[in-house]
Amino acid sequence: MALVNQGAMGPGIFRTADCRKTSKELQERGVEFTQEPDERFYGIDAGFRDPFGNEWRLVQPIEYDIETVPGARANSG
Question: pLDDT tens digits for the chain (77 residues)?
């Protein structure tokens, strides 16, 4: 906990089903976002800091079927 309280913790990630909705709810509660939700290759992502200065990411990952990803192989064994 000491690293968290000092703002010295590395970036953390929270997963959500709806990044835009969750970030809006958090902003309404006073959470300061450093980056608004934005579409990325892996999903929708936003950045914020906790009261101690630690950086966090709020991520809504893209759901996909691994069988349809070019170059991906299913584990057959």
Answer: 454 445 455 679 999 999 999 999 999 999 999 999 999 989 999 999 988 888 999 999 998 777 776 776 655 44
Query: Which helix or strand (DSSP H or E) is residue 58 part of?
Result: strand 55-61
Alpha-carbon separation of residue 63 from 16, 30, 69 (angstroms): 12, 30, 11
Strand partners, 61: 43
Beta-strand runs (E) in 1-77: 12-15, 33-40, 43-49, 55-61
Tell me the HSE value of 30 on the side-chain side, using a 13 A CA sphere.
2
- Report all structural domains of the chain as residue ranges with CATH numbers, in order of start: 2-63 (3.10.180.10)
User: Can you tell me whether residue 50 is helix, strand or coil?
Assistant: coil
Phi, psi of 70 (to 5 degrees): -55, 130
